[in-house]
């Protein structure tokens, strides 16, 4: 009877413990890579054994299918059994570097830490070897071990590759920790040296190829059309070039049952990564992120970019259009899915004010009443009226001026290219002048040697950054000046019919070709100023470089 009561007490305690562990996992780990029962054991094989936590870690995705987890599991299970424990919870940090991630920053180490502090947990912690918990010599000891032992003095740690309780103050343990740290640093230095050598040869260092590519020959990746991934990448760029948001594109792909690169549903972030990856345009980029812990992209000129290193999935004209849409969204707002197709383009002739897009539909009305309204004179025009007039004129204008716009764009692009070259030469002169001043200033009289040198270096860095942007733009113009690319770009628009375009596509179309519409409320007539060319992103640079 006493044994039955004891058994029931153990089961009750385990139920409370597992419930709390589930809550910790839900709050700490956002994307489980396996079902919950992979981590949390539901049944006790032997009630006499005490519960314990097993910690497993591997650094790279390359190790995922190499039995790393299974090997660590078997060793930990054997050691736990020898010490009189069973593993209740497996904390598995997969593809998590211990060199770049402190112990307490790893998600499953956080689960381990919080679980060990539960009153219901009276067990121990097991791991495979010292390198699994740390490669920074002291982070695990200072952030996990010492705080836990101070709050739970009975808590014991075991390493599966040697006997006895694990002790961070033991000389052999400290030696192993130093060796692990040294190995990690040595490997890091070798990797950086290899990457630097390969980049100097303008080749892509060995790394995971982007979605849509497979290994080819002679260091040249090959476009993968076997499972349709390359077509998906092209579709993403195409939809984005027509103004569709990342959210809409992700929703569309999910509705089509197309899986993301990770085999899961598409998200806005996944779409964004593909649209910002120069690899799809045939270029190799490296060190694009601010840092390992900061995923913000560096601006062009601050990371390595090697153009034309391989065959791109996305044609250059499509990349130009996607950049242009990005520029439109920055200027006119992120939302392209709007019934106000002429928002921020209409101006009142009498007041010289931009008309406000306004929904004046009353709450009781069954019909919609959207208008463009002048906040100064209070005059307004219903959107359907001005849209009909505008699009009739726009498509008529494009039909008549197709050839003239094509030839005019070529001339304008060549003019911008000349201006960019002149600007680059001027920057060369500015750089020489800064270097001359830095060398000839009498620092002893001024007394600010260090400050002036830093200022000179900063100016040189800024001038170099501008020059690299100009060079990148020159390359874009050269690509567009190829007749095939330019003609494809124009046909992308001129073959369109008004009735076949969605609201988003019409908004996009409008921003490409209309610079401004001045509406006269007295005569009830608009005066449309058309853009000289659809290359508005480049047009801004063209104006900038004419000064």
From TrEMBL:
PANTHER family: DNA RECOMBINASE-RELATED, DNA-INVERTASE FROM LAMBDOID PROPHAGE. GO terms for molecular function: DNA binding; DNA strand exchange activity. Residues 52-204 form the Resolvase/invertase-type recombinase catalytic domain. It comes from the Bacteria. It comes from Bacillus oleivorans. Keywords: Coiled coil. It holds the Pfam family Resolvase. InterPro entries: DNA_bind_recomb_sf, DNA_bind_recombinase_dom, Resolv_N, Resolvase-like_N_sf, SSR_resolvase. This is Resolvase-like protein. Residues 413-483 form a coiled coil. The keyword Coiled coil applies.
